[in-house]
Specification:
CATH superfamily of the largest domain: ATP-grasp fold, B domain
Bound molecules: glycine
Number of strands: 26
Radius of gyration: 21 Å
Structural class: alpha+beta
């Protein structure tokens, strides 16, 4: 540490990474924050470093040269290509699991085989890399069926097919037309489960684990959960449908056997484990794992974090999590995503973002007694102006005891303008 400041590198450029940067800035430990590549909001609290998230060598060279004390990885891509392995081998501290552990997200085949091996409930499935074998299989299966590209596909690799004709089309597009490139070399075909969907996150140091507060993610583009799947159009905490009893069951039936299984596979998992679940009657099934914080759930979660996030990260990296107290406040919180019109399909960027003159542009503020935050996602600063630079552009978050936090974020959404601005109108309706 130079100048007694801890140097922190945050990898990624979304709202999640911007929220992590704000939580780091709030720490009692004095920090110098770098974001690679960061975004327009990160620029106001950190130094943006123009290195892409998948340039592991570039990131490692930067971290070594600049004596980075701790690196925090936001997205899955650098984890899936082994950034944690490279940093750890070079003697650097990094928050995020290694390449083998990241297979839980980067290979759906690996993750399903893992679940089966350790008797953790998941939908029945079979994997294929040959089209005619896959076609034969779907011919005799009742529909709907779920067809997934095994590799990473930015949330776009999951299809629900209504009949065998549609299944054939999907299989051809993945295995022959290669719409997902190498990520579609293998497909996983799963039985369709319907029930109540829920995501659940914990942090672990490979020895013990601590659950994060529960959250609810709004995945679809349209109001009332209609239309295309997206990365997430909003989130609330706590998840209004999750009881203590359910949390205990998830811990016992999913999280603990998963962590035990990882240990048996010789994997020391250090970071966040995100389980996408479906609840059907008394049964809890794992739909998928992510090996990182969810976005935008993290924005709604971290604004309620009372513990010092740097201490949390260090306790994970140093395998000291067991006696660590992870504390959140007892508010409710909400995150509303402002997106570029057209997202999650094609959209244009480069439009100027105009903030009302009474509104701050980034970070934490207080308006009429409500704490609110603006976290940037797809934005950049050019010539002193904020411009749109991605599908999900800004996250407006608020926390408080009452449902009025919903009105607060919607009020702020009206005070920010850019061409083709789009947002759902029902985020937080479930808050009570
Ligand atoms: N919001 C879903 C995800 O982060 O994958």
């Amino acid at each position: 540490m130079e100048n007694n400041k801890m140097k922190i590198l945050i990898i990624g450029s979304g709202g999640r990474e911007n929220a992590i940067a704000y939580a780091v800035k709030k720490s009692k430990i004095e920090t110098e924050i770098y974001c690679a590549p960061g975004n327009g909001g990160a620029e106001t609290i950190a130094i943006n470093v123009p290195i892409k998230q998948d340039d592991v060598k570039g990131l490692l060279d930067f971290a070594l040269k600049n004596k980075i004390d701790l690196t925090v990885v936001g997205p899955e891509i650098p984890l899936s290509i082994g950034i944690a392995d490279e940093f750890t081998s070079a003697g650097l501290k990094i928050f995020g699991p290694d390449k083998k552990a990241a297979l839980l997200e980067s290979s759906k085949k690996f993750s399903k085989d893992f679940l089966k091996k350790y008797n953790i409930k998941t939908a029945g499935y079979k994997s294929f890399d040959d089209l005619s074998e896959a076609e034969n299989y779907v011919k005799n299966k009742p529909h709907p069926l779920v067809i997934k590209a095994s590799g990473l596909a930015a949330g776009k690799g999951v299809f629900i097919s209504k009949d065998a004709v549609e299944s054939d089309k999907i299989l051809k597009s993945i295995l022959i037309d290669k719409i997902f490139g190498k990520s579609g070399e293998t497909v996983v075909i799963e039985d369709y489960l319907d029930g109540f969907e829920l995501s659940y996150m914990i942090v672990t140091d490979g020895i013990s684990y601590k659950p994060l507060i529960t959250s609810m993610d709004y995945k679809k583009i349209g109001d009332g959960d209609t239309g295309e799947n997206t990365g997430g159009m909003g989130a609330v905490t706590p998840n209004p449908y999750v009881s203590e009893d359910l949390i205990n069951k998830i811990n016992k039936n999913v999280i603990e056997p998963t962590l035990e299984g990882l240990k048996k596979e010789g994997v020391k998992y250090k970071g966040v484990l995100y389980a996408g679940l479906i609840i059907k009657g008394e049964d809890i099934y794992v739909l998928e794992f992510n090996v990182r914080f969810g976005d935008p759930e993290t924005q709604a979660i971290l604004i309620r974090l009372e513990s010092d996030i740097i201490e949390l990260f260090l306790n994970v990296v140093n395998e000291n999590l067991k006696d660590y107290k992870l504390i959140f406040d007892d508010n409710k919180s909400i995150c509303l995503v402002l997106a570029s019109g057209g997202y999650p399909k094609d959209y244009k960027t480069g439009y100027e973002i105009i903030f009302d003159k009474n509104l701050h542009h980034s970070g934490l503020f207080n308006k009429n007694g409500v704490e609110y935050y603006i976290f940037h996602a797809g934005t950049k600063i050019t010539g002193g102006k904020y411009l749109t630079d991605g599908g999900r552009v800004l996250n407006i978050c608020a926390k408080g005891k009452e449902k009025n936090i919903m009105q607060a974020v919607y009020g702020i959404a009206e005070m920010i303008d850019f061409k083709d601005k789009y947002y759902r109108k029902d985020i937080g309706k479930t808050l009570n």
